[in-house]
Amino acid sequence: MTTRCTASRTARTRLLDWGREICGDLATADRREWLCTNGLGGFASGTVAGGLARRYHGLLVAALQPPLGRTLVVAKLEEDVEYGGAGHALSTNRWADGTVAPHGYRDLERFRLEGTTPVWTYACADALLEKRVWMEPGANTTYVTYRVLRAAGPLTLTLRALVNYRDYHATTRSDGWRMGVTAVTGGLRVVAFEGAHAVSILAPGAEARAEHTWYRGFALARAHARGLDAEDDHLHAGTLRTTLGPGAALTVVISTEAAPSTDGEAAWTRRAAHEADLLARCTAAWPGAVQAPAWIRHLVLAADQFVARRPLPDEPAGMTVIAGYPWFGDWGRDTMIALPGLALTTGRPELAARVLRTFARFVDRGMLPNRFPDGSDAPEYNTADATLWWIEAIRATHAATGDLGLLKELWPVLESVVEWHRRGARHGIGEDPGDGLLRAGEPGVQVTWMDARVGDSVVTPRIGKPVEINALWYNALAAMAGFARALERPHDPWEAAAERVRRSFARFWCEAAGYCYDVVDGPDGDDAALRRDRRLAAREPAAARAAAPRGRRLCAPPADVVRAAQPRARPSGVLRVLPRRAAGAGRCLSPGHGVGLAARTVRAGPRARVRRSRRSARVARADAPPPRRLRRRLDRGDLRRRRAVPAARLPGAGVERRGDAPGVAGARRRNTAAWRPPSYVPPLVDPIPRGRPVRPHCQAVIAVRCKFRLDRWFQYSLLFQQMLKEAGQEKHAQICGDSATGGPAPPGAVSPRPRLGGEYRRPPGQPNRGFGGPLQARRARANHGG
Q1: Alpha carbon distances (Å) from 366 to 205, 226, 382, 387
Q2: 81, β-bridge pairs
Q3: Which residues are CB-neighbours of 303 under 8 A, at least 6 positions away?
């Protein structure tokens, strides 16, 4: 019993687990990418197929000046296996001339993710070789372990190390570049040029031989798709060679550290303990995490990948948040927006406090930096909202922890921030003394989150008083009043300032449009453009309560949402959750219901057609029947006879599913309430709370486009199995003279309906799918010796 539970728990933690259907297709495997990080801003990344598709792909992109200074030092290891007298090249490379060589993805049996660690399993004849990659937390060190899972004899592994030393945004042309490569005890040492960090490639127990050969013309498919330079060169700096028996392992250590640990087992234990600690912290903060699905635990581990160190002279333990991999550094706005979810929700409040203290060191003239550019010590202060998001992150941290020490430490900085905003900061950011709202922006500078820029031209200037900036401003003043009360300081002035902004915020309401202006008091007047900024304004805790006039919405409904008193309009290819019905209910679903069967969704019962206008959406003719064209499309897309199935007999009560013959999906549904087809994934939470009436506009929508192919594949595989079975029956009939028509399938058997049977006759009006006639003819010839 214990073994079974442990295996089940292990299976739930493996969210991504792909076989040859993914790994054996180069186009598919090359589009799936993996990422490992080290908590310094450094990372390792690549594709499932094992090739290089971006200039950012490599086994070690070291953050030499954490969290920046990212430098690609080792691109990959070219792997060759000799086993049973045959050679197997496990690498995959695309070249500039359009060729692919070698084709290692063809030997890739499986790829899975264990925590944040990518694991490959290669099949070389009857041998299985496992490869896994991870990084040491807090060090520019990558570990690559090869382990023989199964073999009938010894296996020889040869690794060719391809190195580089370039900025991770660039590409390399060899042009006679000669690096210093020396063989050392247990591996190789590479120095790209004088003054560069030494790179160690160590493999205790392997034979190391120094080389110096440039591999030119690696094709970077993803870079080419982005219109970037898509050709790169890497240096073959040395070769590692060893022989492994069944169960033996080899660990390769790639590092820019002075003395990296070469004990692979100990390094893996440290990595596993680090991830276990993260999950334990989340469980302590949220007891429901124990029963949470596997993807929740993966999100907790993925959140840690964005956390990085930013040591400062007066704050060696400084921390920050990477805005995104692989090409972003740390940005002020992104850090503060993400901080509550990355730190507070995952049970790491001390991390949130360290990040807030770190960024407080960079406050200058009342502003937080927008970003920290690579290769520069001077931050860029072109943001109107990063500082206000910082105040909101402080409010959220104090609300979660009640840490008065943090408030006392940051209170002088908070006061100076508000004072600078009232007096006037950079780029036209300042309070309007007339109404208390915050203005921002000047020509040629982007200061809001819509910061796209082409040359010297700002795509969306938004000069004036943006709606989300003033929602954040009101939220900041309300938070300051709360901080003052917590610290027993005068709070009336802060409350009065917040109340003034709340009253002035009514200016944003556009009566004609029915939603808020995006910008007021701009150079060309008020801007009523429909953008998502009002949604940012609506999410602020204080602004959400006071933003819009009573009875009005702060923002317009999205295009696919019908007004509250009407049913929700659903996009194509999705399922909706039906209200629960008592067992035995006589209601039937229309024929053809199912996962992704039609381009448009079918409702059970009367179909309501929704017509939208620019300002409103309304439901018309709720009693109209489904259109005939949709019914014809369903008939063409399905391969089996239609049949209405009572809703109470469908698997998963409350979820709309296929209403075809129940035996086709894998087993008969009669008296099998717990049955689920292979492509069915139960909802994470109960979508319809018991005992609560569900209105049409509150019904949940589940997107299941990705299930369609799996469901179809399963159906076709069953049909193919049935065809093979009937072919065997025909052969038996030829030899023994028996009837080729098989008997009925026993209850619960995995068998389609007798769609392919010899005696089946298509009912009137049913389209011919091209299966019955030929099979009947072949069967007739077999029975008569033809």
Answers
A1: 57, 37, 12, 8
A2: 88, 157
A3: 341, 342, 346
Nearest one of 786, 752, 784, 748 to 771, comparing CA atoms: 752
438 in Cβ contact with 367 (< 8 Å): no
Listed in sequence order, the residues at least 6 apart from 455 whose beta carbon sits closer than 8 Å to its beta carbon are none
Q: Hey, what are 605's tokens?
A: 């019962």
Burial of 411 (0-12, 13-18, 19+ CB in 10 A): middle
67 cis-preceded (ω within 30 degrees of 0): yes
Q: Is 20 helix (H, G, I), strand (E, B) or coil?
A: helix
Helix (H, G, I), strand (E, B) or coil at 740: coil
Nearest to 672 by CA among 750, 590, 741: 750
Q: Which secondary structure element, helix H or strand E, spans residue 92, and what is its range?
A: strand 92-94
Structure tokens at 206: 């392997």
DSSP 557-574: PPTT---TTSPPP--TTE
pLDDT at 101 exceeding the cut of 50:
yes
Q: How many CB atoms lie within 10 A of CB 182?
A: 13
Say which residues have a Cβ less than 8 Å from residue 651's Cβ, sequence separation at least 6.
Answer: 657, 669, 673, 675, 676, 677, 680
- Give tens-digit pLDDT for 130-185: 999 999 999 999 999 999 999 999 999 999 999 999 999 999 999 889 999 999 99
Round to whole Å and give the CA distance between 618 and 612.
6
Task: Please state whether the peptide bond connecting residue 443 to the residue before it is cis, i.e. omega within 30 degrees of 0.
Answer: no
Q: How many CB atoms lie within 10 A of CB 395?
A: 21
Helix (H) or strand (E) holding 474: helix 467-486
Element (H, E) at 396: helix 386-401
Phi, psi of 147 (to 5 degrees): -135, 135
537/505 Cα distance (integer angstroms): 11
Question: Length of the chain, please?
Answer: 786
pLDDT, tens digit, for every residue of 593-629? 333 333 333 333 343 343 444 444 444 444 445 454 4
Task: Convert 4-25 into a string of H (helix), E (strand) and C (coil).
Answer: HHHHHHHHHHCCCEECHHHHCC
The DSSP secondary structure of 353-381, one letter per residue, reads HHHHHHHHTT-BTTB--SB--TT-SS-B-
In terms of Cα–Cα distance, which of 477, 408, 392 is closest to 438?
Answer: 477
Q: Strand 117-124's sheet: what is its strand order?
A: 17-18, 108-114, 117-124, 127-135, 141-150, 249-255, 199-202, 187-191, 180-184
Peptide bond into 326 cis (omega under 30): yes
Which among 608, 627, 513 is positioned nearest to 566, based on CA atoms?
608
Query: What is the value of pTM for the model shown?
Result: 0.70
Taken in order 108, 295, 559, 579, the sign of the CA dihedral is positive
Measure the CA angle with vertex 641, ends 636 and 642; round to 5°.
85
pLDDT of residue 384: 96
DSSP state of 56: T
Rounded CA separation 453/446 (Å): 8
Please give the Cα distance from 191 to 197 (Å, whole number): 7
Among 357, 356, 359, CA closest to 379:
359
Question: Helix %, strand %, coil % for the chain, to 5?
Answer: 30, 25, 45
Q: Render pLDDT for 440-479 as a digit per residue (tens, 0 to 9).
A: 999 999 999 998 888 888 999 999 999 999 999 999 999 9
- Is 345 strand, coil or helix? coil
Tokens of 29: 């495997």
Q: Looking at the DSSP assignment, which residues form a beta bridge with residue 161?
A: 77, 238
* CA gyration radius, the chain: 32
Residues pairing with 80 in the sheet: 89, 158
What tokens does 107 get? 């030997």
Does residue 429 contact residue 447 with C-beta atoms inside 8 Å?
A: yes
- Per DSSP, 133 falls in state E
Angstrom distances, CA of residue 164 to CA of 160, 307, 410? 13, 26, 44
Q: Which of 465, 355, 481 minimizes the C-alpha distance to 411?
A: 481
